Description:
The protein is mainly β. It has one domain (2-350): monomeric porin ompg (Porin). Helix content is 7%, strand content 52%. It has helices spanning 2-22, 32-35; strands spanning 46-54, 66-77, 80-94, 99-113, 118-134, 144-145, 149-150, 161-178, 186-196, 217-226, 232-243, 248-259, 268-280, 287-298, 302-313, 320-330. Strands 1-2-3-4-5-8-9-10-11-12-13-14-15-16 form a 14-stranded antiparallel β-barrel. The chain has a two-stranded antiparallel sheet with strand order 6-7. The protein is globular and about 70 Å long.
Amino acid sequence: MKKKIKLILLSICFPLGLMAQELINSQFYLNRVNTNPAFVGETNIRLNINSRSQWMHIPSKLGSNFMSGNLVVDGPICSRPNSGIGGRVGYEIHGQSGLQTMSIYGAFAQKIPMSKFLNLRLGIEGGFLNRSLNGNQLIYSDQIDPIRGVVSTSSNSGLPLLSVFTANFNAGAILSYKHNKRSSPLKRLYFGISAHNLNTPQLNLISSNSDERLARRYTIHGTALFDNRWPVAMICNVRYMQLENLGTNVFDIFVNGVKQSQNRRQGASFTIGGGFRTANSSLRRNTHSALAAFGFTWEENSQILVSTDINVGGFSTGSFSTWEISLIWNFDNACNKGRGRRSSSGGYLGCADF
């Protein structure tokens, strides 16, 4: 009986959890390594921290029904100026049921110069996922009273912590363009494609006879930076994602402007932006969100950004249900003591400079 109850509960939790896991991070233009492993090491040594709280309008003792976070460290390889390495760790807490996912990855990327203004960058990432479920945090049928609601005792006690550990692999490519013609307002442009969960890892916690694989995810993304000599720099970011075998796709567009100063080492520049996301899946169609963000950029392109997703159609219209914050800290490049690879604008406002 316990097994049947758990199977019913997990059959509800897992599809939602899997899609939520793949659809997080509205700030994809700042969390570049999460979007595409080919971004690893394209600028100076970089620390990136991201935290997201989702579906906060739904009552929860945790304050949020889905929480996630990532920490990424990456940088160039001094002995190989066109190569980069990095690593990232992440966590996800899926509601109040005790379902959690932890991850750790290592990545390598290589730049292939194609012309004076055009470069191709390839990246690969591999690591491990651990998904676990604390059975004592589940609500069982004998805890539900038809009159009083949920009671605190259950005959299902002392259940073990269920856990699965598996490998996972991701890959991506980015084509970047840069020129210095004063006649054109477009200064940098890149287009990327990535594939995550290449081996569709098995994350089933119940039985080897049940197939609960993580869906393969394909992402197409691009960013354009318009004349960073203007008082306000404009950056346009787009993304399209598709989850294989789940009938889910997402399209984002986000535009932000940043007030600039002549010397970026003097003070901080204010940034503000907005965008729109539309998504549909086999469970819920035509879900839309408006995106708003504000933050600061200072010194060597270090940034902090806070954003919110405002539901405008399909699910709790009008609620500020999701908040996200990112911190990107760019360090001076130690390679050759600042000669050669140090960038005066690398990664500026989320627009990579290869």
